[in-house]
Amino acid sequence: MTSTKNSLHGSVRVAGVLAAVATAGTMTTALAADADAANYRDGTYTATGDYTRPGGPDKINVTVTLKKNIVQSVSVTPGSSHPVSSRFQGLVAGAIASQVQGKNIDSINVGKTAGSSLTPQGFNNAISKIKSQARA
After folding, report:
1. Under 8 Å between Cβ of 71 and 102
2. What span, in angstroms and rounded, lies between the C-alpha atoms of 29 and 27?
3. This protein's superkingdom (predicted)?
4. Quick check: pTM over 0.85?
5. Of 60, 75, 59, 73, which is closest to residue 105 (Cα–Cα)?
6. What whole-number distance in Å separates Cα of residue 19 and Cα of residue 131?
7. 26-64 in b/e burial notation, b at 16+ Cβ within 10 A?
8. Which strand (E) or helix (H) includes residue 18?
9. Quick check: 73 and 96 in contact, CB under 8 A?
10. CB-CB contact of 14 with 7 (8 Å)
């Protein structure tokens, strides 16, 4: 019985040490993530995002208002002269706010939206440019 009791206490001690190490590791990771997190100046920024559609290069215009790294508002203006591309850009423009408003700009990476898989690439390109402009 003594070896079972010692084994049980040893297991509890090991589990406690592992939990403490895991917690310390999580705290270290969280602190490192905070240190690596970018800070952006509050304000309104505009950029043109470039992407390639089957017919060639295209662009989309994006305006974002930031406050404490959070997207407060977003506006997308079609920049294409190609009728099909312009139509998709308009659809994306109408759907994008619900995906990005209220989110940290560093977490934004829009995928297929409103049936368009290419226009979001231009949007993400514009967001990258806006992040460069706004970096504190």
Report:
1. yes
2. 5
3. Bacteria
4. no
5. 73
6. 38
7. eeeeeeeeeeeeeebeeeebebebebebeeeebbbbbeb
8. helix 2-36
9. no
10. no
Predicted local distance difference test score (pLDDT) of residue 94: 92
Order of strands, sheet of 70-78, starting from the edge strand that comes earlier in the sequence: 43-53, 56-67, 70-78
Q: How is residue 24 written in tokens?
A: 């310390």
Tens of pLDDT along 72-109?
999 999 999 999 999 999 999 999 999 999 999 999 99
- Helix, coil or strand: residue 112: coil
Rg (the chain; Cα; Å): 24
Which tokens belong to 38?
Answer: 């970018």
All structural domains of the chain with their residue ranges: 1-36, 43-134
What one-character-per-residue DSSP string does 35-101 give? HHS--B-SEEEEEEEEEEETTEEEEEEEEEEEETTEEEEEEEEE---SHHHHHHHHHHHHHSHHHHT
- Determine the residue type at 74: V
